[in-house]
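#struct-queue
[09:14] JT: dropping the first one here, sequence first, then the C-alpha cells:
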Amino acid sequence: MTLYRKSMMVSKNSITDEKKIIQRGKAYLTPMKHYHVKEFESIMHPANKVEVKDFGYDSVEEALFEIFNSTESYICRNKYGNIVFVGGLSFFEETPQMFTIFANSLEHNVVLTAKMSKALLNLFDKLHPIITMTILSKNEHMLNWACWLGFEPVEMSTDNRFVEFVRCNSQEFDVNNEILRPIVH
C-alpha cells in the first residue's frame, strides 16, 4: 500500500517501520531518514522556505540534505501519518543549536507541534546543559515560540537580522541536586 502526499509517494511500510522515540497518542517523533527529505520538501511551510535563503542555502533540498547529513534530527508525524515538523540539534557551534522547520499544516497542528517540541526539548535537556537558537528577528512567531520553550534572548547579530537565544538547564546538571549526588555509605 502506498500513501499519496502532494505528488510524493511514501511507502506505508517505511512509515510503519519508523522507530518511535517519543509518542503522544498516535503522533510520534522518529529519527530523520533519507526518504523524509523528499517527503518534507514539498510540504515545508512557506515562511521556512523563505528562511532557507536567509540562512544562505540555494534550495530547500540542499538545506534538508545538510540537516539530514550533519545534525541530530527528528521528524514529527501526526495521527494521520503526516509530517508536522523537522526538529533537532546542530553541533557546528560550541554549544548545540536547536532548530525546527514546520510543515505547511502548522496552523492545523499548533497544539501537537507545541507538545512534541517540548517533548523533544526535554529529551535534549537530559544530555545538554545549554542549548542555543538563532532566529530571524523579523519572524515574531518564532521569537515567541522560542521564549515559550524556555529560551532567553541574549544577543542581536551586528546587522540586526538574527536574535540569539540560550536555554540553560541547570536542574539536570546541578552538582548540588540531591537526586544526582552519589550515595555515601
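[09:21] JT: and here's the second one, same format:
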Amino acid sequence: MLDVTKYGAKAVNLDYIKQSIPNAPILPYVLVGVDESWKAREKEILSLGENILVRSSSPFEDGAEVSFAGLFDSVLASKSIHSTLEGAVERVKDSVNDSNTNRYAAIHGITEPLTMALVFQKRHPDNASWSMVRHPHLHNVMFISRQYKEDASSSWVYEQDKGIAYPQEATEEEIKLKDISQDLERALDFYYSVESLPRYQMGYTYQMEFGVSPFSFFQFRPFRKKEEANWECSSTNISKGEKYQHFTFGITPKEGIELKTIRMIDFFSSPSLDQGLKGKKDREEVLKIVREAMGLNTEEEIYAQTLFSQLKPGVVSSAYHLHEAVEELHQRYSNESTAVLSGSLHHHAQIDILFPSSKVWIPSYVGSSNFMAHNCFRAIQHYPISLMGYLCRNKTGDKVRVFSDGINARIEYL
C-alpha cells in the first residue's frame, strides 16, 4: 500500500481500491507525491486527455475525525475554459494557505505545516456530482445525492432491505433506483464491495463520491462512527407525515443534555426593510429598524451593530453576512454548552469554523437539502449531535434540553 504521508489519503484510497477490486471503474490517473515535481511526470499527465482534473491529496484529509472536506481544492485544467495545468496545480497547492483551511487545522489541533500531494485524473464527462453514504445509526439506510449546480441538488433515502428509494422533497412516493439513474444499482454494489475491504473495517460508515453515465468511482472517506443507542427517543419536533424529512446524527444520554441556544443569522433583506434603511445615517435609528426586522433579543444586539457597520449611505444590499457577530458570540459562549441554530448562514460560511465549540447543531433549512455537500458533511462530522430539519424557535441565550437516540430526537424548551 502507498505511504499516506507521501501521497495523501485520497490517493492512497484510490490506489488501494483499484488494486483490491478487479476491473474497478476508476478513470486513469497519475499520482505525484508531496515532495515530487509534477513537471517530471508532465508527459504522462498530458496523456490523460484534454480535460484533466487536478485533485488535492493531503496526508491530513479524509481522516476518521478530520476530513478537510471542501477546504482543499480540485481544479479542472482544460483548453475549453482557458485553464492551464500549471495554473490548476498552483491553485490546488495554494489551498493549504487558505484562512479557513488553517483555522480548521488549528481547531483540530494540527500544528505542523499542511502538505499536499496531487492526483491528476481524466475528467468524467458528467457535470453532476453523485454521493452516497450509509447512516451511522440505521445500518439499513443509505443516503444518495446528486448535485449538478452549486445550489441545485436532489436527494434520496434508500432502504437496502426493501430495495426502495424515497425522495427527500416532502413526498413519500417510492422510486426504483433505475428510475433515478441506470447506474445506481451498480454504484451501490460497488459501495458494498469497497466497504467490505479490510482497510475499511474501522467501525465507521463511509461516503462514496462517483459519476454516472458511465459509472466511475471517485472517492471513499469516513463519515461517522457506527453507534446504536440503548434507549428509544420519541420525536415531538417534526411534522407528521414527512418520511425522511428529518435526520439525527449522534446519541445523547437518555436524560438528554441541557444547552443554551445560539441563533446564527444571515439577514436577507426585504423591500420594506431596504426602504426603511435607505438613506438612514443615525445609528440609533438604524439599530431600531434592524432590531425590529430581525426580532433580536438583548443577547443578539451584536447582529444589529455589525449590520450597521456594513451599511453604506444610499446603498441597498440584498443580503447581509454577519460573520463578525457570529465570531463575537462564539467568544462570549465558547466555555458554555451550546446548541447552534443556523439558517441561511451555512450556505455562505463554514459553520463548524465560525462556531466550533458547540455540542449540537440544528440547521433549520436542512431537510430536502443536500446535506452531503462538503460544508454540511464536515459540520456533521464535527458536532457530536446534528439535528437535520428539526424546528427550534429559540433565540440566543434561551435554554433547551436535547434528546437523541441517533434515529429520532426531541427538543424540550426550559
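[09:30] RK: nice, looked through the second one.
[09:31] RK: The first helix runs from residue 4 to 20.
[09:31] JT: good to know. The CA atoms of residues 63 and 233 lie 30 Å apart.
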